[in-house]
Amino acid sequence: KAGVTQTPRYLIKTRGQQVTLSCSPISGHRSVSWYQQTPGQGLQFLFEYFSETQRNKGNFPGRFSGRQFSNSRSEMNVSTLELGDSALYLCASSLDSGGDGYTFGSGTRLTVV
Amino acid sequence: QKEVEQDPGPLSVPEGAIVSLNCTYSNSAFQYFMWYRQYSRKGPELLMYTYSSGNKEDGRFTAQVDKSSKYISLFIRDSQPSDSATYLCAMNYGNNRLAFGKGNQVVVIP
Questions:
Q1: d(CA B27, CA B47)
Q2: Cβ distance of B49 and A45 shorter than 8 Å
Q3: Which of A93, A110, B1, B95 is the most buried (most CB within 10 A)?
């Protein structure tokens, strides 16, 4: 079966711009979570969407937002980009809660210049 | 103090050696414990999942959890060059908000 698909794989943006990243979960998975991975902080939880509703939120500023569509596909948006937003952004999907059914995509590498 | 501590130092071992990795955590509410493996330019993939204290084996991999000490370990026996990757511990309390360690880069030298 198809895995979690993230697009684009690579992105270069300028400070102050905004960016939208996309995640298509495994078919049938209703939960999509987003993480930021940097060398300094490791993997940090951004937010989780389940059935189009934000169910959990991490400790990131309001510039980071997301949404989920009725087909479970999710997007995350970062506005007013800062250099420190350069990171690998990962999404993971699962049927519902719990860690054992969690599948990650390969991520979007965002570079802010 | 971070919720999950994993000494992020790299680890180089000869092929066939035992790899030992560990994490400590501070939140006693954590109930589910995982180890992920991440290859370069890929997302993490789940290796081991456990929710009770004690050992769990899966082939060459053993996950160990000690809830009283808030300490988890991963052992890789008979390590292979294909095991070269970054290993991340993760944990949660039943929701989809995972707390991760920073990861250990493991290199298995042929």
A1: 22
A2: no
A3: A93
> What DSSP line would sit under B24-50, residue for residue?
EE--TT--EEEEEEE-TTS--EEEEEE
Is B45 part of the contact surface with chain A (CB cutoff 8 Å)?
yes
pLDDT bucket at B2, cuts 50 / 70 / 90: confident
Banded model confidence at residue A99, pLDDT cuts 50, 70, 90: low
Determine how β-strand A108-112 pairs with β-strand A10-13. parallel
CA–CA dist B12, B68 (Å, integer): 30
Contact assessment for residue A58 and residue A46, using Cβ atoms and an 8 Å cutoff: yes
* Torsion of the alpha carbons at B54, B60, B61 and B62, rounded to the nearest 10: 10
SS3 letters across chain A: CCCCEEECCEEEECCCCCEEEEEECCCCCCEEEEEEEECCCEEEEEEEEECCEEEEECCCCCCEEEEECCCCCEEEEECCCCHHHCEEEEEEEECCCCCCCCEECCCEEEEEC
pLDDT in tens, B67-109: 999 999 999 999 999 999 999 999 988 788 899 999 999 999 9
